[in-house]
């Protein structure tokens, strides 16, 4: 069966209904403007280096920063960031993010260093729901991360490899209870790990 160019374009619009409208740099690498160090018990030091990164030092359990700037979109957006783990064996560069009126956390390298997933979906942690997958992360290597949040799906890529494509419309999306809830509305966190975060950009979409 042959398709005309117009037909292919129309099919593409239905398969890819979102269009980027505006991008916003959330972390410029020069200051923590619009961010606050999250007051986790036993947190490690948080500082900036000279290469445009924020350093989240190894602490007792969680260390992180969270957004205190203008309101961010709750759906139909994408966030890109780069993360590097320097020390530790648990999650690094994990992102708590808004979805509709709730929040969830994208776990990056958790549960021993390889787990990638979203907490929580229908009450199940990242290790217990269908978003869970494994990915090997090397120490001292930068990883390009991209999370896309729409009404119907949560999608996540590492270095352009899609690791998560989870249908969530009509399902319960919520935070895991505990100190991680302090990361809302948008926050990066590590667990018993030293990590660097840089180049954080948010892009809004429209249909």
Give your account of this protein's structure.
The strands form 2 sheets. Strands 1, 3, 4, 6, 11, 12, 13 and 15 form an 8-stranded antiparallel sheet that branches. This protein has a single domain, classed as Jelly Rolls (Sandwich), CATH 2.60.120. Strand 12 and strand 13 form a beta hairpin. The N terminus is likely disordered. It has 207 residues and is mostly beta strands. The longest helix is centred in the N-terminal third of the chain and has 11 residues. It is built from 1 helix and 15 strands; from the N terminus they run H-E-E-E-E-E-E-E-E-E-E-E-E-E-E-E.
Salient structural properties:
mainly beta; 8-stranded antiparallel β-sheet; Jelly Rolls; 1 helix; globular; 7-stranded antiparallel β-sheet; disordered N terminus; 15 strands; 207 residues
SS strand fraction: over 45%
Cα shape: globular
Number of domains: 1
In CATH terms, the superfamily is: Exo-inulinase, domain 1
H/E element string?
HEEEEEEEEEEEEEEE
Secondary structure topology:
Blueprint: H1 5-15, E1 19-27, E2 35-37, E3 46-48, E4 54-56, E5 62-67, E6 77-88, E7 94-99, E8 102-110, E9 115-119, E10 133-134, E11 142-149, E12 153-158, E13 161-167, E14 187-191, E15 193-206
Antiparallel strand pairs: 1-15, 2-5, 3-4, 4-15, 5-14, 6-11, 6-15, 7-8, 7-14, 8-9, 9-10, 11-12, 12-13
